[in-house]
Model the fold of this input.
Amino acid sequence: MTKKTNDDEYRIIPVKNGKVECLIEKIEPIERCRFCVFSRFFRIKGEDVKAPALAFCPRHGDADCIDLSMVESVICGDRKGEGFMSVLNVIS
Done:
């Protein structure tokens, strides 16, 4: 699924060596993005693919498995600088 992102709505975080700069000077492995409530899309070969965390969202409800080694950037909905928040904490 391809979706145009709006820079006012999402942050586009590049992936470097399997890591993202979640917050300023806070580097996280991309594996954490898989379960982060703020992850919206993973950009792979120029296409935006739904983030796996959206599978837990009643509004979106589905997401494909993603080869994290192919991810170029993470499209993130965290505009307030809260950082990683596990979807598992929200649903428990």
